[in-house]
Amino acid sequence: MALVPKEKLPWYHQFCSSVLKTGPIPKHVAFIMDGNRRYAVKKHVERIEGHSQGFDKLAEVLQWCQELGVKEVTVYAFSAENFKRSKEEVNSLMELARSKFERILKEKGKLEELGVRLCILNVCAAYTSRLEITQAVKDIKWGVEEGLLYENDITERLMDRTLQIPKVDLLIRTSGEVRLSDFLLWQSSLSYLSFLKHLWPELTVWDFYGAILLYQQSYKVIKEERELNEKEMMEEESLCEKDSLDPSEVQRKRRQRVENFITKLNEKRL
C-alpha cells in the first residue's frame, strides 16, 4: 500500500471525519501494532507476510490520522523482547522494516509536492518503557553533575521533558490483549486507553473512528485529571520558591536552566 493515496477517502469516510472534527481530536495517538503473527496463522501465510501487511496497515492508519488532523503518531514496532525470537525471523523483520521505512521516506517527498503535511511519526524499536525511564533518570543525573541543573529542578515536569516521547492522548492496542506490554507507561498515565479485538492488519477505519469517539466521550474527565495534575506540579515547584524573596525570578532562572539542559541533552543524543 502506498503512502500517497491514489484517490481521496470515500465521501462517507470524509463525512464521518468531518463530524468527529467538531469534537476534540487527540494531538498524539499511540498504537501497539499487535497481531501480525496471529494474522499470518489465521490466513495460512508466512509470518513475514503477516508483518508486511502490518506495515501496509500502518500506511493506511497514517492516512486516517492525517485526515483527522492528528499531529503526532507513535507506534510500537519492536520491543526488546522481540529480539528473543528466532534469528531468521528477526533478520527478515529488520529487512522488511528497512524497505518499508525507505518507501515511507521516498513517498514523503511526493506528499510534500501535493501540499500534504504528514504528522510526526515516532517508531519505537528495541524499546521498553522501563529502559526509557531509566535512561531519563540517568540523563537528569548527568545534567546535575554537569552543573546544568540544580537538585531542586528535578520535578515531574522535568521528567516529562526528558523522556524522548511526549505524553499520549489516546493509546490503541489491537488483537484483544488488555495490557501495555511496557510501552509508554509514563506517557499514557493520563490518557484514554482503547483495546480492540481486531488483529492489527484487520484494523478498520471504523475501529479507529470508534476509538476517537470514545476518547471524545471521556475527554472532559481526562481534561480535569490533567488540570489537577498540572496544579499539583505547580504546587510541587512552588515549594522550592517559598523561602525566596523573589519567587518569579527563581522561576525564570529554573526555566532557563531547564531549557539549556534540554538543548544540551538533545545535542548529546545526536
UniProtKB/TrEMBL annotation:
<dbReference type="InterPro" id="IPR001441">
    <property type="entry name" value="UPP_synth-like"/>
</dbReference>
<dbReference type="GO" id="GO:0045547">
    <property type="term" value="F:ditrans,polycis-polyprenyl diphosphate synthase [(2E,6E)-farnesyl diphosphate specific] activity"/>
</dbReference>
<comment type="similarity">
    <text>Belongs to the UPP synthase family.</text>
</comment>
<dbReference type="GO" id="GO:1904423">
    <property type="term" value="C:dehydrodolichyl diphosphate synthase complex"/>
</dbReference>
<dbReference type="Pfam" id="PF01255">
    <property type="entry name" value="Prenyltransf"/>
</dbReference>
<dbReference type="InterPro" id="IPR036424">
    <property type="entry name" value="UPP_synth-like_sf"/>
</dbReference>
<dbReference type="GO" id="GO:0016094">
    <property type="term" value="P:polyprenol biosynthetic process"/>
</dbReference>
<dbReference type="GO" id="GO:0005783">
    <property type="term" value="C:endoplasmic reticulum"/>
</dbReference>
<protein>
    <recommendedName>
        <fullName>Alkyl transferase</fullName>
        <ecNumber>2.5.1.-</ecNumber>
    </recommendedName>
</protein>
<dbReference type="InterPro" id="IPR018520">
    <property type="entry name" value="UPP_synth-like_CS"/>
</dbReference>
<keyword id="KW-0808">Transferase</keyword>
